[in-house]
Specification:
The complex is a heterotrimer. By secondary structure, chain A is α/β, with parallel strands linked by helices. Chain A is built from 14 helices and 10 strands. Chain B is α+β, with helices and mostly antiparallel strands. Chain B has 3 domains: 283 residues, no CATH class; 113 residues, no CATH class; 59 residues, Arc Repressor Mutant, subunit A (Orthogonal Bundle), CATH 1.10.10. Chain B is built from 17 helices and 17 strands. In chain B, strands 3-7-8-11-1-12-13-14-15 form a 9-stranded mixed β-sheet. In chain B, strands 6-5-16 form a 3-stranded antiparallel β-sheet, with no helix packed on it. A two-stranded antiparallel sheet of chain B has the order 4-17. The radius of gyration of chain B is 30 Å and the shape is elongated. In chain C, helix 1 packs across helix 2. The chains are: A alpha/beta, B alpha+beta, C alpha+beta. Chains in contact: A-B, A-C, B-C. At the A-C interface, helix 8, helix 9, helix 10, helix 11 and helix 12 of A face helix 1, helix 2 and strand 3 of C.
C-alpha cells in the first residue's frame, strides 16, 4: 500500500519499526499529488516537497511525517497569503506557535492549503487563485473555508492538515469531504500566527483521516501560549490514550432546532442511523432545546464581520503585500488614494462585502443596535449550551444542512451561502469544542458528516464517542474514486 | 464684554517601562530606526498583544495618586482609524472601562487654591514616528515607538487662565516624577500635551465652541499658545462672529496658532472591545497593595515640611521640587538635625552646582552624612562659611569627608584668642591710617580692618570673634 | 431601505476601500438583504443579559517587563513595497 494512504499513527508504527524511511512517505505523496492535484487543486501554490533535514527524523511523535497547513497560518519564510491578492508575496518572518509545535515534534510544512480568501466562505470558491474541488465529485465544492485542507486529506495527497474554524470552516469541509475535523474549545490552541478573521471566534484545528490521528494532533498543538492572551492555562490531556474508554452510559442530547421539518431527508436518515448505532453501544439520548439557535447566523454575521473589518484594516500596502500606487482621478491625497486602490484591488468581492458590513455595524449610531445587541444574544446562546450540559455530556447534530453543492451554485446568493453554516456557528459563539466525522454517503456518493459538540475543554469525551462510533462503522474507510 | 476662558488639558505621558505595552521590545528613545520591532508592535498578520504588567501597575498608581476612583474591572478597546504610523490601523486604547476616573489635582495659583478635576486616566499604545523630508513627495515611517505604553490623563475644563494650565502641568509633572513612572521630558516626547479652549461671557454657564491646540513643546509654549488663543477668540467674539470648532497648531516661531489643514471628516473611531485581550479584574487587596506602594506625594510632603520644619510654603516648595532632593534633605537631617541651615545649603550652593552641571542630587555623589557634617562645622564655628564653600568644592571632586579635608588643608577656623590677637596686632600695625579713621569716628574702618585680618589668616579667622576682639583691642589704641 | 448607496460610499471611505460604481450598487443590494435578515435580533429580549465580548475562559493575563529579542530589520524591510534604508516609505501625508 502506498504510504500516502496511511494515517499518521500507522506511519508512526512503521517508522518506529524501521520498516520505512521518511523520504518514502514524501515520495508517495509527491506521486499522488502529480496524479490528483490537477483535478482537486487543494494546494494554494505548488507544494514544497522539501528535502527532509536529518534532525526532523530523530525527535518527536511526528518525526518524518509532513504537515499541510492552511494558507492563513504563518510559517517562517514561506509564502502565506490567505489566498488573497493583497498579501501577495508575504513571507512572515516568524512561525505560528502551532507550527513551532509541529516542527518541535519532528514534522515539517509540506504545503499551504487553498482556502476561501481570508477564510470568508463555505465553499473554497473565493480563493484568489482557483477553487478547490471535492475529491468525491469534482463538480462539487469541498466546503470552506478550509476546503483545501479537507480535500488534500480526503484525496490522500496529505497525511493530515491544520485548518482554522471561525463559524464552521473546519467542520463543514470535513463533512463535505468525508474526513474528521475538530474545532477545539476557544483558547485550547494558540492563535499566535493565525492570520485573524474574527479574534473571539477563531481556532486552529486538525483535519485527519480518522479520530485517532485527530486526537494525536490535538495533543501536539494544544496548550497555553504566553504569546496569546486568550489561550487557556489548562493542562492538555493525553487524548490518544483516552480514546478507548467505554461509551456506555454517556448521555447525548439531540437539539430539536437542528432536526427541523423539511431538512434534507438523506441527512436526517444518516443521523438517525448514527444515533441508533451509538444507542447500541450503550449511549443514552434525550431531546433538548437550544432556543436561540435561530439567531446564531445573525449574531455571527455581526460579530465576525465587525472583528474582521478591524483585523483586515492592517492590509494597506504600507509594510508588506500589495501596494497600488497608481494615481486615480479622485483628487484625494495620494496616501488615501494608495489605501483605497490597494484595498480596492487587493480584496475580493466577499472580503469587501464583509469589511463593509463589519464597518457598518460598528459605525457611529449603530454600535448599540448591532454589535452590542449581538453580543448579548451571544451570551444567551452560550447559556443555552450551559443549561444542556448540566444534564448531558455531549450534543449530536448534523454538520451541514446539505451535502456538497455544485461549484457556482451559491456564489450569487451570499445569504444562502451564509446559511450553510447554520449548524456549526453556535459552537464558535459559545466557545465550545465540536467535531465532524463521516457518518454516511448520499445516493449520489457524497459524504455526510455528523457533528458532536462537547463541554468547554471536553474534547476527550468527544473523541471517545467519535472513536467508538468510527470503530464500529466503516465510513472512515470509504475513499473517493480518483 | 468680559470673557472667561475655559481650558481642559489632555496630557500623554510615556511610561518608563523597560519594554513596550504589549510586546517585549525595548522601550527606548533614540535607537536606530526600525530596530526595536517585532511581529506584535509591527502589527504583522497573526501577531497578538500581551499586556505589560509594569505598565498596568504604573497606570493604576497614577490614578490613585490623582485621587481617582480606581476601576476594579478594566478592559481595552480598539480605536479604529487609518494612518501610516499606526501599524494595525487601529490603536489599542481604553474607551468605557479605563483604569481610573473622577479624581482631582489641587493647585495653588496667584494666591488662590483651585481644584482641577481629573476626568480619567487610561492606558494606550503609542504610534510610530513619521518624518517628512523637505521638498519630497513621500514620508518615512519608523516603528520603534509603536507600541510604547502611553498614559492619557484628561482633565475636566476647570482651568480658566494660562497660569492655571501652567501650574497644573507643573504639579502633575511633579507627581509623576515622585511616582518614578516617566521622565516627563517634553523635548524627548515623553510628555505631550494638547489643550482645549473656549471662551464664554463671564457668568454664563453654557460653554462656548472650543478649539483644540496641538504642537506645543514646552510648558512655556502651552502658556503662550493659550494666551494667544484667548486674544484671538476674544477678537472674533467681539466682532460678533462665531468661533469655528477646529484644530490649531502652535507655531513657535511666529508665536501664533494656525489652522491645521484639517482632516476632512470628524473621526468615527468605531470603538469596540479588544477581543485579543481578556478582562482585567483586580481584587480589592491587589489595588490596596498598589496603593501601599505609593510614596508620600508632593502635596503631603509640602504640608509636612512646612509643619515639621517650620518652612514657608515658598521655601518648602524648593526642597520638595524633586523627590530626590526632598529625600536627600531628610537624610541629611539624620546626621545633623538643623532644618533651616541644611535647607539653605541645599537651596543655595548645592542647587547651583546641580544646575550648572545639569545633574540630579543623586548624580552629584555627595554623601548626606558629609554635607550634614560640613554644615554642622559651620554652625559650631569650626570653619567660616567662606571656607566651607571651598571644602564643599573639594568634597564634590573627591569622596572625602569634611573633617579630613579641613585637617589636611589646615582650614580650621582660627578662634583662639592668642592666635587671633597676633593677627589683629599685625593688621593694626600695617594699617595705621584705618586705625586713625576708626578712632576718629569712621565705623567702616572697623570692617576694613576685620577684612585685613581675614586676609592675613587666609580666611580662617572666625569673623565674629575677630570683630569683637578688634573692637576691644582698638579701644586700647 | 436600511442602507443607501451613499451609506455604502461613506462606509467604504471609513474603511479605505476603493469601490467602483458597480460594486457600490451591488453591495447596496446585497447588504440590504443581509441587514433585513439580521433585523430578527430585534425580537430577542436582552434586557437581563450582559454582553459576551472578551476571552471566555481567561482573565488577567500579563507578561513581565523583561526585554525580549527584537526582529532584525533585515527580516522585515525586504517585505516592504517601498523603503528608504530602514524606513518604510509612503506617499506624503498632507496635514
Amino acid at each position: 500500500m502506498k504510504l500516502n494512504f496511511l494515517t499518521a499513527h500507522e506511519l508512526q508504527g512503521l517508522l518506529a519499526a524501521k520498516k520505512i524511511e521518511p523520504v518514502q512517505i514524501l515520495a508517495d505523496i509527491e506521486e499522488r499529488c502529480r496524479i490528483v492535484e490537477p483535478k482537486i487543486r487543494a494546494y494554494a501554490r505548488a507544494p514544497f516537497f522539501r528535502k527532509i533535514s536529518s534532525e526532523s527524523r530523530l525527535q518527536g511523535e511526528l518525526s518524518g511525517i509532513p504537515a499541510v497547513i492552511k494558507d492563513n497560518i504563518c510559517s517562517d519564510g514561506d509564502l502565506t497569503e490567505c489566498c488573497s491578492r493583497i498579501l501577495e508575496g508575504f513571507r512572515p518572518p516568524y512561525d505560528a506557535t502551532v507550527v513551532e509545535k509541529l516542527k518541535g515534534n519532528g514534522s515539517f510544512i509540506m504545503a499551504k492549503a487553498n482556502m476561501d480568501e481570508f477564510a470568508f466562505g463555505s465553499s473554497c470558491e473565493t480563493s484568489c487563485f482557483y477553487p478547490t474541488r471535492n475529491p468525491w465529485n469534482t463538480d462539487h465544492v469541498p466546503g470552506g473555508s478550509s476546503g483545501g485542507a479537507a480535500a488534500s486529506v480526503a484525496a490522500d495527497e496529505a497525511i493530515f492538515s491544520l485548518g482554522s474554524d471561525t463559524g464552521g470552516s473546519i467542520r463543514q469541509p470535513a463533512a463535505l469531504c468525508g474526513v474528521v475535523g475538530l474545532k477545539p474549545t476557544y483558547g485550547r490552541v494558540s492563535r499566535y500566527g493565525l492570520i485573524a478573521f474574527a479574534s473571539s471566534l477563531d481556532q486552529i484545528g486538525p483535519l485527519t483521516k480518522d479520530v485517532r490521528d485527530n486526537a494525536l494532533l490535538l495533543k501536539i498543538i494544544s496548550g497555553h501560549d504566553e504569546k496569546d492572551s486568550t489561550s487557556a492555562d489548562m493542562p492538555v490531556p493525553d487524548y490518544p490514550a483516552l480514546l478507548e474508554k467505554d461509551v456506555r452510559g454517556m448521555r447525548v442530547a439531540i437539539p430539536r432546532e437542528y432536526f427541523v421539518e423539511g431538512m434534507d431527508p438523506e441527512i436526517r436518515q444518516s443521523l438517525t442511523e448514527a444515533k441508533n448505532k451509538l444507542g447500541s453501544l450503550g449511549v443514552s439520548f434525550g431531546e433538548v432545546s437550544l432556543p436561540h439557535t435561530e439567531y446564531a447566523v445573525a449574531v455571527y454575521y455581526i460579530i465576525a464581520t465587525a472583528e474582521a473589518s478591524s483585523n483586515l484594516a492592517r492590509f494597506d500596502g504600507v509594510q508588506y503585500g500589495l501596494r497600488n500606487s497608481e494615481k486615480t482621478n479622485s483628487g484625494q491625497p495620494p496616501l488615501i488614494s494608495m489605501y483605497k486602490e490597494t484595498r480596492g484591488r487587493g480584496f475580493g468581492a466577499e472580503a469587501k462585502r464583509r469589511i463593509t458590513l463589519g464597518t457598518y455595524v460598528l459605525s457611529s449610531g449603530y454600535y448599540d443596535a448591532y454589535y452590542l445587541r449581538a453580543s448579548k444574544v451571544r451570551a444567551l446562546i452560550k447559556d443555552d449550551f450551559d443549561k444542556v450540559f448540566k444534564e448531558f455530556d455531549l450534543i449530536l447534530t448534523p454538520t451541514s444542512p446539505t451535502a456538497a453543492f455544485k461549484l457556482g451554485e451559491k456564489t450569487n446568493d451570499p445569504l444562502n451561502m451564509y446559511l450553510s453554516d447554520i449548524y456549526t456557528i453556535s459552537a464558535n459563539l459559545a466557545g465550545i469544542p465540536a467535531i465532524s466525522l463521516p457518518c454516511g454517503l448520499t445516493k449520489k456518493g457524497l459524504p455526510i458528516g455528523m457533528q458532536v459538540l462537547g463541554k468547554p475543554f471536553g474534547e476527550e469525551d468527544i473523541f471517545r464517542l467519535a472513536y467508538q462510533y468510527e470503530q464500529n462503522t466503516a465510513w472512515h474507510k470509504e475513499k473517493p474514486k480518483l | 464684554m468680559k470673557y472667561e476662558a475655559v481650558i481642559g488639558l489632555e496630557v500623554h505621558v510615556q511610561l518608563k517601562t523597560k519594554t513596550k505595552a504589549f510586546c517585549g521590545c525595548v522601550n527606548e528613545f533614540g535607537s536606530k530606526e526600525n530596530t526595536n520591532i517585532c511581529p506584535v508592535c509591527l502589527g504583522l498578520p497573526g501577531s497578538l498583544p500581551v499586556l505589560n504588567e509594569k505598565a498596568y501597575k504604573m497606570s493604576m498608581k497614577v490614578g490613585l495618586a490623582l485621587d481617582c476612583v480606581p476601576r476594579q474591572c478594566v478592559k481595552f478597546d480598539r480605536k479604529n482609524y487609518f494612518y501610516p504610523d499606526l501599524p494595525k490601523n487601529f490603536q489599542i486604547s481604553q474607551y468605557d472601562m479605563p483604569f481610573a476616573e473622577n479624581g482631582a489635582l489641587d493647585i495653588y495659583v496667584n494666591g488662590q487654591d483651585k481644584k482641577i478635576r481629573i476626568k480619567r486616566v487610561h492606558l494606550e499604545e503609542d504610534a510610530g514616528k513619521l518624518m517628512h523630508p523637505e521638498g519630497e513627495s513621500y514620508s518615512l515611517v519608523d516603528f520603534n515607538r509603536a507600541g510604547a505604553p502611553l498614559l492619557e490623563i484628561v482633565s475636566e475644563p476647570d482651568m480658566h487662565s494660562p497660569d492655571d494650565a501652567y501650574q497644573y502641568l507643573t504639579d502633575l509633572k511633579l507627581i509623576i516624577q515622585y511616582l518614578d513612572i516617566s521622565d516627563c521630558d517634553m523635548e524627548k516626547g515623553s510628555l505631550r500635551c494638547d489643550a482645549n479652549i473656549s471662551l464664554r461671557p463671564e457668568g454664563q454657564v453654557k460653554l462656548g465652541t472650543k478649539a483644540e491646540l496641538k504642537n506645543m513643546n514646552s510648558f512655556k509654549a502651552i502658556k503662550a499658545a493659550l494666551t494667544y488663543e484667548i486674544k484671538r477668540q476674544e477678537k472674533i467674539l467681539e466682532n460678533k462672529e462665531p468661533i469655528a470648532q477646529e484644530t490649531r497648531l502652535w507655531d513657535e516661531e511666529k508665536e501664533q496658532t494656525i489652522l491645521m489643514r484639517s482632516k476632512e471628516e470628524a473621526h468615527d473611531y468605531r470603538y469596540f472591545p479588544e477581543p485579543d485581550l481578556p478582562i482585567f479584574d483586580l481584587a480589592g487587596e491587589e489595588i490596596q497593595d498598589i496603593m501601599d506602594t505609593l510614596p508620600e506625594l508632593p502635596k503631603a510632603k509640602l504640608g509636612r515640611f512646612m509643619g515639621s520644619y517650620g518652612f514657608s510654603q515658598k521655601d518648602a516648595a524648593v526642597i520638595i521640587s524633586s523627590k530626590g532632593l526632598a529625600d536627600y534633605f531628610e537624610s541629611c537631617l539624620k546626621f545633623f538635625n538643623a532644618p533651616k541651615p541644611v535647607a539653605n545649603w541645599l537651596a543655595g550652593p548645592v542647587f547651583s552646582e546641580m544646575n550648572s552641571r545639569n545633574i540630579s542630587i543623586v548624580s552629584l555623589g555627595l554623601a548626606p552624612e558629609h554635607l550634614a557634617k560640613l554644615i554642622s562645622r559651620v554652625e559650631d564655628g569650626s570653619i567660616s562659611r567662606l571656607v566651607a564653600k571651598d571644602v564643599l568644592s573639594v568634597m564634590l571632586k573627591t569622596s572625602q569627608g569634611p573633617d579630613a579635608i579641613i585637617k589636611d588643608k589646615g582650614l580650621q577656623q582660627v578662634s583662639g584668642a592668642s592666635e587671633l590677637n597676633k593677627i589683629i596686632d599685625e593688621a593694626i600695625a600695617n594699617n595705621k591710617k584705618s586705625v586713625d579713621d576708626y578712632l576718629s569716628g569712621k565705623e567702616n574702618a572697623l570692617m576694613f580692618l576685620v577684612g585685613q585680618v581675614m586676609k592675613l589668616s587666609s580666611g580662617k579667622a572666625n569673623p565674629k570673634a575677630v570683630k569683637d576682639m578688634m573692637t576691644e583691642r582698638l579701644k586700647k589704641c | 431601505m436600511r442602507i443607501s448607496k451613499d451609506d455604502v460610499k461613506n462606509i467604504a471611505n471609513l474603511a479605505r476601500l476603493g469601490l467602483t460604481d458597480i460594486e457600490v450598487e451591488s453591495l447596496q443590494v446585497q447588504l440590504e438583504v443581509i441587514l433585513e435578515y439580521i433585523d430578527k435580533l430585534k425580537k430577542v429580549d436582552v434586557s437581563k443579559t450582559h454582553a459576551l465580548t472578551n476571552a471566555l475562559y481567561v482573565k488577567n493575563v500579563y507578561r513581565p517587563d523583561i526585554p525580549k529579542a527584537s526582529l532584525d530589520p533585515s527580516k522585515v524591510m525586504p517585505l516592504s513595497p517601498a523603503r528608504e534604508g530602514n524606513f518604510f516609505k509612503v506617499p506624503k501625508i498632507i496635514e
